[in-house]
């Protein structure tokens, strides 16, 4: 098994040279595996001519395109650490990240060339059409050496550089292929940003490893995305819930069939159960996954038929990783007891860059403390309850926002909802719901209160409801609850 893995893309190209590896929707470019291999070796030549040494960081600032992948693989071949930057951040935020990771080189596309020059002095454009391929010689690279560094979103504080080794990236890909049953015939559509682990490691790397096809979209538009699912004959694709919300509202989704699709995957945030129903009514399989930058991000498998019966469950841990749930006393939780989710496996990250204290705080006896709350049912299937930091303590009672949100979203007039705890002198925190609706009337407020009283314990019912035009989102489309709380202070 090739676990040091720096050259597996070249091996894949030798096995299936003429298979289409990558398709770029925006430019209509298609690369076979042989072409991807050639582009990778061109970039290796460029990076070697820059005088880079093993362990040097190569930062990357560009929108989604297939040009991302040969640079990622070239860094692997040369032993360099690839650092994709979130181009949606402010210039000040990008400077902070560049100062933290201290790259030797920053690569940008044409759009971000001027910004790149402002934030870092050693900046180059992506154009490499005239370069020759490098004569590749295998490097002395260990499986535990770093390959990729992804900065977290920073919604809980300063972004942290998550260092992923060859083991972490490759074991996640292999585990996904084996556990999910991926095949060379699989094709995935990716609109997830390629500075995010979901865009890189959820499906793109596993699909490329197994010899399938990865279709890269740039700017997400619901109508274009759902049409592309059929146009490119995709079989398995990942979107975040806010993307699905837009897609199911399109006329194309309502009218079209998706004959090549095996399953639609949702990740990045808890998915409203009402979204499942739109796919079920069309006879389409739909399920949720769970992951984080520090592990995978793929950790669980559930058969789509079971997912339809157990909405919200992510199933059981995959073949080559383990999970456990612990309560506040550090004991393994009993059935249906809520506790913190711990993960273990070779797909785990190595460390936070320049942040030894944070690394130690989230690793316990080889297990990653995820900061997410979960529970296990009688069958051993896992449900993600929510973020530990999002749990609301009101009058001494624990309220999990996701449970309240799943209740409120069932109202037909509710488009989106986020539940947070707002500070209160009497209760400590009060359950507060922020709702997007096309019909925000007094009657709707009363109907939502009645709905919650019918299905939830009294202490879980929101004490206040706010109607808003839209909910703030993070750079990867998750609802930003921290921003909601800050706005309400």
Automatic annotation (TrEMBL):
Organism of provenance: Ureibacillus xyleni
Keyword Phosphoprotein: no
InterPro entries noted in UniProt: AMP-bd_C (IPR025110), AMP-bd_C_sf (IPR045851), AMP-binding_CS (IPR020845), AMP-dep_synth/lig_dom (IPR000873), ANL_N_sf (IPR042099)
The family this protein is said to belong to: Belongs to the ATP-dependent AMP-binding enzyme family.
Identification of the protein by name: Fatty-acyl-CoA synthase
GO-annotated molecular function: medium-chain fatty acid-CoA ligase activity
Alphabetically ordered keywords of this record: Ligase
Domain of life: Bacteria
Record SUPFAM superfamilies: Acetyl-CoA synthetase-like
Keyword Aminoacyl-tRNA synthetase (UniProt): no
Biological processes per GO annotation: fatty acid metabolic process
Domain AMP-dependent synthetase/ligase residues, every copy: 12-353
Domain AMP-binding enzyme C-terminal: 403-478
Pfam families for the chain: AMP-binding (PF00501), AMP-binding_C (PF13193)
């Amino acid at each position: 098994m090739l676990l040091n893995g720096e050259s597996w893309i070249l091996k894949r190209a030798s096995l299936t040279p003429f298979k289409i590896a990558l398709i770029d929707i925006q430019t209509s470019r298609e690369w076979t595996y042989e072409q991807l291999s050639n582009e990778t070796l061109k970039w290796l030549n460029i990076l070697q001519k820059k005088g880079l040494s093993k362990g040097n960081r190569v930062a990357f600032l560009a929108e989604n395109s297939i040009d991302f992948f040969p640079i990622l693989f070239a860094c692997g071949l040369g032993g360099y650490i690839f650092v994709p930057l979130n181009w949606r951040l402010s210039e000040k935020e990008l400077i902070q990240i560049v100062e933290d990771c201290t790259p030797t080189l920053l690569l940008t596309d044409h759009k971000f060339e001027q910004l790149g020059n402002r934030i870092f002095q050693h900046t180059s454009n992506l154009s490499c059409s005239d370069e020759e391929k490098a004569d590749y010689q295998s490097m002395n690279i260990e499986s535990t050496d770093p390959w990729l560094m992804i900065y977290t979103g920073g919604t809980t504080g300063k972004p942290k550089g998550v260092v992923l080794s060859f083991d972490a990236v490759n074991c996640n890909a292999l585990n996904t292929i084996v556990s999910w049953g991926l095949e060379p015939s699989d094709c995935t559509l990716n609109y997830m940003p390629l500075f995010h682990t979901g865009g890189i490691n959820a499906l793109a790397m596993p699909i490329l490893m197994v010899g399938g096809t990865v279709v890269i979209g740039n700017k997400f538009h619901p109508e274009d995305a759902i049409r592309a699912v059929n146009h490119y004959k995709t079989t398995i694709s990942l979107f975040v819930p806010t993307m699905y919300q837009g897609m199911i509202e399109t006329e194309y989704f309502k009218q079209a069939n998706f004959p090549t699709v095996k399953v639609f995957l949702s990740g990045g945030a808890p998915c409203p159960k009402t979204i499942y129903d739109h796919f079920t009514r069309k006879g389409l399989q739909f399920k949720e996954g769970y992951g984080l930058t520090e592990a995978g991000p793929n950790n669980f498998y559930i058969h789509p038929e079971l997912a339809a019966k157990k909405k919200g469950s992510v199933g059981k841990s995959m073949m080559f990783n383990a999970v456990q749930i612990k309560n506040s006393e550090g004991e393994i939780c009993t059935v249906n007891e809520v506790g913190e989710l711990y993960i273990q496996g070779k797909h785990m990250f190595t460390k936070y860059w320049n942040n030894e204290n944070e690394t130690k705080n989230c690793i316990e006896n080889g297990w990653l403390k995820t900061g997410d709350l979960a529970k296990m049912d009688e069958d051993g299937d896992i449900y993600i309850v929510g973020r530990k930091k999002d749990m609301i303590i009101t009058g001494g009672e624990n309220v999990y926002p996701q449970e309240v949100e799943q209740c409120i979203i069932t109202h037909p007039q509710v488009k989106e909802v986020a539940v947070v705890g707002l500070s209160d002198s009497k209760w400590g925190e009060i359950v507060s719901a922020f709702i997007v609706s096309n019909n925000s009337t007094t009657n709707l407020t009363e109907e939502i209160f009645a709905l919650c009283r019918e299905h939830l314990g009294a202490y879980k019912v929101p004490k206040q409801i706010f109607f808003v035009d839209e909910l703030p989102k993070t750079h990867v489309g998750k609802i930003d609850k921290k921003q909601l709380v800050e706005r309400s202070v």
